[in-house]
Amino acid sequence: MAEDVFLALANPIRRRLLRLLADGPRTAGDLAAQFELSRPAIAEHLQVLRRVALVRDVPQGRQRHYHLNPEPLAQVGDWLHPFERFWRERLRSFADVAEEET
């Protein structure tokens, strides 16, 4: 399942959809209006995100409202956590070099 989440997150359109949904639920039409893609193309991206449980849709009348489901993202964060030390050390080294140059 985690591999599927990483594959879904690999696409920049899907990452942008998740950022938009982080602000709150939105309809498919509202999401599609934020892109220069067709509504069917956005619907396909939303389907991928639904399949890996990153979003859920709630029917309200004739519309579907999409909601972010942060739980799979927490799993990704847990997986990435051990690598934070590596990047923190690299950034600290970079900052040291930058300070020596000034």
Automatic annotation (TrEMBL):
GO molecular function, one term: DNA-binding transcription factor activity
SUPFAM superfamilies: Winged helix' DNA-binding domain
Top-rank taxon: Bacteria
Pfam families the UniProt entry points to: HTH_20
Start and end residues of each HTH arsR-type domain: 1-88
TM stretches of this protein: none
Protein name: ArsR family transcriptional regulator
Species assigned in the record: Asanoa ferruginea
